[in-house]
Amino acid sequence: xxxxxxxxxxxxxxxxxxxxxxxxxxxxxxxxxxxxxxxxxxxxxxxxxxxxxxxxxxxxxxxxxxxxxxxxxxxxxxxxxxxxxxxxxxxxxxxxxxxxxxxxxxxxxxxxxxxxxxxxxxxxxxxxxxxxxxxxxxxxxxxxxxxxxxxxxxxxxxxxxxxxxxxxxxxxxxxxxxxxxxxxxxxxxxxxxxxxxxxxxxxxxxxxxxxxxxxxxxxxxxxxxxxxxxxxxxxxxxxxxxxxxxxxxxxxxxxxxxxxxxxxxxxxxxxxxxxxxxxxxxxxxxxxxxxxxxxxxxxxxxxxxxxxxxxxxxxxxxxxxxxxxxxxxxxxxxxxxxxxxxxxxxxxxxxxxxxxxxxxxxxxxxxxxxxxxxxxxxxxxxxxxxxxxxxxxxxxxxxxxxxxxxxxxxxxxxxxxxxxxxxxxxxxxxxxxxxxxxxxxxxxxxxxxxxxxxxxxxxxxxxxxxxxxxxxxxxxxxxxxxxxxxxxxxxxxxxxxxxxxxxxxxxxxxxxxxxxxxxxxxxxxxxxxxxxxxxxxxxxxxxxxxxxxxxxxxxxxxxxxxxxxxxxxxxxxxxxxxxxxxxxxxxxxxxxxxxxxxxxxxxxxxxxxxxxxxxxxxxxxxxxxxx
Amino acid sequence: xxxxxxxxxxxxxxxxxxxxxxxxxxxxxxxxxxxxxxxxxxxxxxxxxxxxxxxxxxxxxxxxxxxxxxxxxxxxxxxxxxxxxxxxxxxxxxxxxxxxxxxxxxxxxxxxxxxxxxxxxxxxxxxxxxxxxxxxxxxxxxxxxxxxxxxxxxxxxxxxxxxxxxxxxxxxxxxxxxxxxxxxxxxxxxxxxxxxxxxxxxxxxxxxxxxxxxxxxxxxxxxxxxxxxxxxxxxxxxxxxxxxxxxxxxxxx
Lengths: 627, 253
Known about the structure:
Chain A is an alpha/beta fold. Chain A has 18 helices and 24 strands.
């Protein structure tokens, strides 16, 4: 295999979304040589779709905000299943990460005093989301993309080559993380353009591949969200944690069919959007769960007053955490109070003027006008739940983002698990990827500087290469497009918003069957930019993700956050003490239960004990956190 | 509301290719990208097309539809007449890789030539204060999704490969304008370098770029023309140049 393209780096970053780029910046600033590998063109990652903002307790709009309040909101949103340390680091470091972006040229919307403006969002006690209209994700991606160019220009000046220390390998798929003697030695993949194979040798790999949405039929995710990093990590011997928890964003477009699933930002509700059913009922008041009863208004008058006076009124229930709103919409539609396209109405036109809507929600206006022919300044939008985010992901060590069990492997952003518990708050994703992208960059750099490098063996290369060639050598096998569509039907119908034990069992059997058949996928045409060939690899990844999700979900006999069991409707405090860990033995995914790390006393004490009683067992509350 | 749609799709590679006729189903509310995907899934498994978000936010699915540079995900089938044949071809200003996918690396090379944002050395993180009205000018240009349709349509490079070396193109004129109008950027002479190094002078403001911009950025009126005017001002009046720099720095506390 001496004729393949070879590269050698200190740090390989897989994925060029927010987390990957932030990690790459950090590794380069630690004077290491970094390769960024991405499936799309540079700057197209799914982070551009993030609309609402990045949560950080800068206190620019309400000075009562601080990291402790943000920490509490995050834990509540995740129903206390979050890894406390990740939620703590995230709440403490988010403001610095946002301000840092400003030093790289980001231009956030401003307050009257000229500070970074912050907006309200579901589950956040104070206005907390730094934003740029409703295109905050684009601003983040562009800022970091341009930061990388700035570093490349610096390298150009110093060394004569702009790509000396940091190089982007765009439109390249990684098919395998390589290991020698139990530690990371590099990655193997192919150029999507030519199909030519590439070997990267490096002691550290940071996985920052984002989500898994394409495993589902209705999703806000682009084609890239195929769980590649989840599957690569599993195959490399790492674990996934909490894979049963998927966030169905309550408001995706439902019509026309071709845009079904595309996100309608939560900012619409943050800016005053109201949800109604076809009877004209503002139904969210019926769905305030007990744990939130003192924080959310139970009548329209108070909810409306909150937009003007947040200190003396409770929040409107439209701003409950996403899992609650998604379930509520699902119930309304099931009860026959949904629109003909299977959604409910979301209306911002009655509270805000056309001018303000176009200014604060410009891309929503654009999206509905151009794709659905709806003018949201005059009429309501039709919305319904869409698979948006996976809370589960690679089990990592919180401070360094090191993947547990695989020396040299790191993970950050959506692909990492633990931070968001059973449900992520809106706005916590963009700040998550900045905080943990940076930490992964530091963690990987420190490891890389000390690591002994082991060259990739010829056997490893041969095996990786054979896997890429396999679908071409088969004839008349299954078509990857139809297998993908079958998988999406199964996940949609049996592993979706509301689940039952019997359906999950059926899903597990059916996913195993598709997996067997997928071993026989054949591809027509050549290697040259062949999407059928690309999907064959993505499909394999999605199957492992679906298997992890279904198998974790069948074990969790309760409903919590992004996991709702019709046969176990309530939240059970005993289940809060349990994480489900997925691992892969080469044939199938196995799940084991693992105790959730217990929250230390100083964080425990940030909460009112009566609130904790709603989530924790009596013994846990009596113990008062670990010392 | 399903109907049969006649399409002509350009298929080929860097050296050879041509239009192929297909008939494909189209449903109510669908866009050109939807029917291309249907062709891919049912008739041409190896048809190459770039796309990502399918919501007009990432700028990946740029192509020419009936000869006009457009995003396939934002072009409604219903915008064509019932019997109209829809012809899709790759972006003409860039070399074809395969089918509808072109090599847009020209743009990434140009991006690397634009000097980066320069933050004031004495302004610590969190200390910046800017007026909304001041950031909005640059924010308009930061809406750019880098679909490169403006680059594709710009006649300075569309059929003039020889101009590419000395011409950055509209996408990067708005990048320079954005930095030039950025309330905190400390690098001087951005307009001059736009003129002298990035080919601003070659633009003769036909506004083709503005017309194709899916984000409706006023590329010509708000970026190119103001820079051209100021370059002229500065050339003839050094005091105005100094004045413009002082005004720019007012936003800093």
